[in-house]
Write a structure and sequence with these properties.
about 300 residues, Rossmann fold, Tumour Suppressor Smad4, 8-stranded mixed β-sheet
């Protein structure tokens, strides 16, 4: 979401694009209309174009996509016709072996799916010509450790959220950074967000907007009981540990709002920066501040008659 030169934004030569996977929710009329033009347009320019249809189709293909990724049978480019949720689904499918991904926005927000739907030709022409504006997005690696000795791992592009179940009372979450205790939060939950995720759940909970190129993460409490609790921005190499010190019922870890892990009292989540960022592509002519104004509903304008006297 920042204003950057090409070198700062990560303009890169992707090389020849021979295979493209198009992920599109064809249940939406606007997506169907776009796909009806986009897919034939691509087939005239690349050797192989595969297409996944509706949400159910995408879910069925996810396991196959993961298997293909493990076997390195990967497309050169993934094009997603949808919103940020669809982008997150594609990122999960290729979590182990990231593929350059371009999002054409058909959602309500569109911070990850950054290309306006009316400009898909210009965006794809730039990518297929061998250059694309690459925005490497920081990811988070989480290790869930249960008191019974079992464990699990997860990777997030946007955020990791530890929260209480709907009908339970507040929980107590202990936060440590580099083995140094920070504080115990009595709250509905805690969000650990990347710069990409700063405009998602964290923002709605009062967290700051971070530039997508920043190397940091933000810790945002959800409805804390103590009014003095505020979001904390930490160094990107920080190692965090969240412990469920008290919960009156079930708790859960949500990974990008799509993967869920049950937590109990005494369980902990260890979080660090994933060593491999995810290669999202952006439209070269994108105005990042226009994106902020449009997505967040900022008018940015003051009527001339209201300017009178402001400087006095």
């Amino acid at each position: 979401m920042e204003s950057q030169s090409d070198s700062e934004r990560g303009t890169t030569t992707l090389g020849e694009v021979r295979s493209v996977l198009v992920l599109a929710n064809l249940q939406k009329a606007a997506v169907r209309d776009c796909a009806a033009e986009l897919v034939p347009w691509l087939r005239e320019r690349v050797e192989t174009v595969d297409q996944a249809g509706d949400i159910e189709d995408f879910e069925r293909r996810r396991s196959r996509l993961a298997a293909e990724a493990a076997g390195r049978n990967l497309p050169d480019l993934v094009v997603v016709l949808g919103g940020d949720g669809a982008i997150l689904g594609a990122v999960r499918a290729f979590a182990s072996h990231p593929v350059p991904t371009l999002g054409i926005n058909f959602g309500r927000v569109g911070f990850l799916a950054s290309t306006p739907r009316g400009h898909w030709r210009e965006a794809l022409e730039g990518v297929l010509s061998g250059e694309g504006v690459l925005e490497p997005r920081m990811r988070l690696a989480a290790r869930i450790r249960h008191v019974d000795g079992s464990s699990a791992s997860a990777v997030a592009l946007n955020d990791l959220v530890v929260s209480r179940a709907v009908h339970q009372g507040m929980m107590v979450l202990g936060l440590s950074v580099e083995d140094e205790w920070v504080t115990d939060y009595r709250a509905d939950g805690l969000i650990i967000a990347t710069p990409s995720g700063s405009t998602a759940h964290s923002l709605s909970a009062g967290g700051p907007i971070l530039l997508s190129s920043m190397r940091c993460l933000v810790v945002t409490p959800i409805c804390p009981q103590g009014l003095s609790y505020r979001p904390i921005v930490l160094h990107h190499e920080s190692h965090l540990r969240l412990e469920v010190k008290h919960t009156s019922g079930a708790a859960v870890l949500a990974v990008d709002g799509q993967g869920f892990y049950d937590l109990g009292q005494g369980d902990c989540v260890e979080i660090a920066r994933h060593p491999v960022p995810y290669p999202l592509l952006a439209w070269r002519d994108l105005d990042p501040y226009q994106r902020l104004r449009e997505r967040l509903g900022w008018s940015g304008l003051i009527a001339p008659e209201r300017l009178d006297g402001i400087a006095d």
